[in-house]
Amino acid sequence: MSSATTFATAASAPRASSRTAASSRGTEPPSVSPRSAAAASGASSLRGSGRRRHRCPTRNNLDVRSRRMRIDGGGARSPETTRRLDAVIDPGAASTMDDDAATDARADSRAHEEEKVGVLLLNLGGPETLDDVQPFLYNLFADPDIIRLPPALRFLQSPLATILSNSRAPKSQEAYASIGGGSPLRRITDEQAAALKAALKSKGVGADVYVGMRYWKPFTEDAVDAIKADGVTTLVVLPLYPQFSISTSGSSLRLLEDIFSEDAQLQRDVAHTVIPSWYDRPGYVASMAKLIKKEIERPDSAFDSPDEPLIFFSAHGVPVSYVEQAGDPYKAEMEDCVARIVDELKRLGVRNEHVLAYQSRVGPVEWLKPYTDDTIRELGEKRGCKAMVAVPISFVSEHIETLEEIDMEYRELAEESGITKWGRVPALDTDPTFIADLADAVVDSLEGMKADVPSARAKKRSGSGVSSGSFDEGWLSSGDYDATDLPPVMPIGAGVDISDLGSVGDLLGVGFKPEPWKWGPLEFAMVTLSILLITILAMDPP
Ligand SMILES: C=CC1=C(C)c2cc3[nH]c(cc4nc(cc5[nH]c(cc1n2)c(C)c5CCC(=O)O)C(CCC(=O)O)=C4C)c(C)c3C=C
Ligand SMILES: [Fe+2]
Q1: Secondary structure class of 137 (helix, strand, coil)
Q2: What are residue 274's DSSP bridge partners?
Q3: Ligand nearest to the CA of 245
Q4: Beta bridge partner(s), residue 273
């Protein structure tokens, strides 16, 4: 799947200011404009294309601020040093950056340097201590891709985030306390980064691997600063979510797009490509199937025989409106992903029954169904299921929702429902087959950039299913593409260039589509809150 164009090593001019993160910590209320279908068409044309530079869309500054409003909970190290040290996996590379003179000298000589490859792993981030929990939750709820307010109420994003984070913090802290007082996500993601770096090296690709988290340290902005400071010329952006959702990869890519759109140096010096989702990679599918088989065949498992347990795929949910109104491909990708793993299991001789359900819902709106808790109850109480192996499917690392929600809450619920034989497949973490596959994905992507693929295989969702088709850039960039009809499922290796996107939401053909007003509990709360705020603001000081 490629056709040729040239791959010029990114030329480097002397670097401009390499620090942008501090300026991103605004506190302005968010305001996010709807994107046009025409912009969406331009964005979609990126699928399958390789590097596109110097073509950055004009951005709405308020959009940018709203997505980059966050708090970092303080910390002992200076922000500059923290950003560098937090984001760079290669400790050697990090320490050399602390000398500004050396950094500038390196920048000056960079024009003559070879290509320098970087891989940016995007993830959600998690609180490392119990004190981090509330500010982490604030950052999460302040994200318009997580709490999607109607346009008229977007000015309430920040106050609402404050209210929601404060009210959820105690429950959340309790959960984090039960798994040792913090999220292991950063440690595991750093380990994955180090393993990926080594795997790439063994494939002949020298690359630094950076970690950029959306809601906690090391923040995405910090990783980008380190990427600039290191003089990376070619960047592969790899969200650590196998399936695409507006709320996860979409949010991180949107933020990254904003960072690029504000930064001429990045646009000029860093050629980049995105791997939006990769659930259908044979290596990932095979490593998931292998882990499941291993768990049910474990000699000390709770099961009488490997073919006894029901295989219970539990994915993180998203609100139904993401899929049905905004066109999030998450559900379709999840279903396709499970089907592929089940096929692979059959190939390995595993024919157990399976089910897919969605966990971790938050708030009063309807989320993807069936819900994990309801399904466990139904299976145990009404269907006589006695043995179950839980498979966390939307995560590649252990974290709060595997260690607390699945291992504690759902296990207990299963027992109460009569499912007495329980097992849980571990998250992939640094599984060698998985890491090797990620490395292959990066290599494929770099090759795609070299080839500067003008058209590529793409999968287009039609109705409820996912079908394959092909397209060419001309058609997609023609401007008459209907944003409502194409939330594309992205094949890996089809590079997507952030700088070409009207928005990453436009990459999906989704994101900020105007939505019909619906009166629900959230809207009611928002309007009440607005009236309250307006009343308070209108009151004369005593
Ligand atoms: C595919 C993965 C994820 C999707 C989709 C997702 C959507 C989503 N999440 C929330 C709310 C919360 N998520 C929280 C933690 C959390 N979420 C994911 C992954 C997905 N989220 C991960 C990996 C983590 C854990 C990080 C860690 O600390 O280990 C939390 C905080 C924990 C808690 O209080 O329960 C919240 C809240 C929404 C609203 C949403 C979609 C709109
Ligand atoms: Fe979540």
Answers
A1: helix
A2: 237, 496
A3: 1
A4: 236
Q: What is the whole-number distance in angstroms between the Cα of residue 132 and the centre of ligand 2?
A: 16
Encode burial over 377-405: b for 16+ CB neighbours within 10 A, e otherwise: bbbbeeeebbbbbbbbbbbbbbbbbbbbb
Asked whether the bond before 151 is cis by omega within 30 degrees of 0, the reply is no
How far apart (Å, rounded) are the C-alpha atoms in residues 143 and 70? Answer: 9
Cβ atoms 68, 258 nearer than 8 A: yes
Q: Ligand 1, atom 20: nearest CA belongs to which residue?
A: 316
CA of 316 to the centre of ligand 2 (A): 7
Spatial separation of the C-alpha atoms in residues 52 and 204, rounded to whole Å: 25
Question: Which residue's CA is the nearest one to ligand 1's atom 38?
Answer: 146
β-pair type (421-424, 387-392): parallel
The response to whether residue 247 sits with its C-beta less than 6 Å from ligand 1 reads yes
Angle at 328 between CA 279 and CA 184, to 5 degrees: 55
Q: Which tokens belong to 40?
A: 């969406």
Which residue ranges form the domains of the chain, and what is each CATH number? 22-279+433-508 (3.40.50.1400), 282-424 (3.40.50.1400)
Ligand 1 center–CA 227 separation, angstroms: 26
Ligand 2 centroid, distance to 360 Cα (angstroms): 7
> 10 Å Cβ neighbour count for 473?
17
Backbone angles phi, psi at 298, to 5 degrees: -55, 130
Nearest-CA residue for ligand 1 atom 17 is 124
The terminus-to-terminus CA distance of the chain in angstroms comes to 70
Q: What is the ipTM of this complex?
A: 0.93
In 142-238, which residue ranges form alpha helices assigned H by DSSP? 157-178, 185-202, 220-229
Q: Give this prediction's pTM.
A: 0.74
* Contacting residues for 373 by C-beta, under 8 A, at least 6 apart: 359, 409, 410, 413
Ligand closest to Cα of 329 equals 1
CA of 334 to the centre of ligand 2 (A): 15
Q: In what order do the strands lie in the sheet with 421-424?
A: 354-359, 310-316, 387-392, 421-424
pLDDT in tens, the chain (542 residues): 222 222 222 222 222 222 223 233 322 222 222 222 222 222 222 222 233 332 223 333 334 545 666 777 764 333 333 333 334 444 333 333 344 555 554 554 554 467 999 999 999 999 999 999 999 999 999 999 999 888 899 999 999 999 999 999 999 999 999 999 999 999 999 999 999 999 999 999 999 999 999 999 999 999 999 999 999 999 999 999 999 999 999 999 999 999 999 999 999 999 999 999 999 999 999 999 999 999 999 999 999 999 999 999 999 999 999 999 999 999 999 999 999 999 999 999 999 999 999 999 998 899 999 999 999 999 999 999 999 999 999 989 999 999 999 999 999 999 999 999 999 999 999 999 999 999 999 999 999 888 865 433 233 222 222 222 221 222 112 121 222 222 222 323 333 333 333 333 333 333 333 344 455 566 666 667 766 665 544 444 44
Output the residue whose Cα is nearest ligand 1's atom 27. 126
